[in-house]
TrEMBL record:
Highest rank taxon of the organism: Bacteria
Cross-referenced PROSITE patterns: ADH_SHORT (PS00061)
Official protein name in the record: Pyridoxal 4-dehydrogenase
Gene name in the database record: pldh-t_1
Assigned protein family: Belongs to the short-chain dehydrogenases/reductases (SDR) family.
């Protein structure tokens, strides 16, 4: 397999929630590797972010989209169809975390997480698969290490991420006959702006976070981007229906190290 075959140069890829955090890390890495990236983002600030990336010579197009709204997803893929002759990949990254006391959790917050985190993966994947069917392509669903083990107050988040991982397995079989591979990618703790601010405000929290991981580090958003690029490329041609755990060994440890 040649280097060109393994890469993603020239491929058209949609990344939902691509304007910040892990999503932006994915967008940057894919574009740096030569992909033509659609940044689907509900925050209007994504327009400035994509423009800044374009000034760096990267091919990034911002399309506003609220994945919690089916009509907005319809509009996203209609615009993708109008701008590009094909679609090669989709990264379902957009997600929402609502953490709180289980006894006080509202139905509204539960439904919001289900719609944003889980329903959107179904709808976006269905749109993308219809565009890729026959020609082939790859879908990467961003799950979480919370799909396998979680913590108090994260019931809705864990449920939706577990659903993503399970749905990925079924989708791999449903779409394999259409030459579409489907995998999930499960990041652990990642240095988003929010996590970075917490660690800056409380240095002891940063030391605690790092000590939880076998490698004494937490993810950078671009780390997740590199793995997404791999799953979108032909270098991962034998992978479908798989979940790639990217949590620096956190979930491999038998005991909770909260006493450190």
């Amino acid at each position: 397999m040649s280097e060109q075959q393994c890469g993603i140069g020239g491929r058209v890829v949609v990344v939902t929630g691509g304007g910040a955090g892990i999503g932006l890390g994915i967008v940057k890495v894919l574009a740096q590797q030569g992909a033509r990236v659609v940044m689907a983002e509900c925050n209007p600030e994504g327009s400035r972010t994509s423009a800044a990336l374009c000034e760096q010579g990267l091919d990034v197009r911002f399309i506003p989209c609220d994945v919690g709204d089916p009509a907005s997803i319809d509009a996203l893929f209609a615009e993708v169809r109008s701008h590009y002759p094909r679609l090669d990949g989709l990264v379902n990254n957009a997600g929402l975390t609502i953490h709180g006391d289980f006894l006080e959790a509202s139905l509204e917050s539960w439904e919001r997480m289900v719609n944003v985190n889980l329903r959107s993966v179904f709808l976006c994947s269905q749109h993308a698969a219809r565009m890729m069917a026959g020609a082939g392509g790859a879908i990467v669903n961003i799950s979480s290490n919370h799909a396998g083990a979680s913590s108090e107050g994260f019931e809705g988040y864990a449920a939706t991420k577990g659903g993503i991982t399970a749905m990925t397995r079924a989708m791999a079989w449903s779409l394999g006959k259409h030459r579409i591979r489907v995998n999930s990618l499960s990041p652990g703790l990642t240095l988003t702006d929010h996590i970075g601010q917490l660690m800056s405000d409380k240095p002891e929290l940063g030391r605690f976070y790092h000590a939880l991981h076998a490698t004494q580090r937490i993810n950078q958003p671009e780390d997740v981007g590199q793995l997404a690029a791999f799953l979108l490329s032909d270098a991962s041609i034998s992978l479908t229906g798989a979940d790639l755990m990217a949590d620096n060994g956190l979930s491999a440890h038998l005991f909770n190290r909260s006493g450190i």
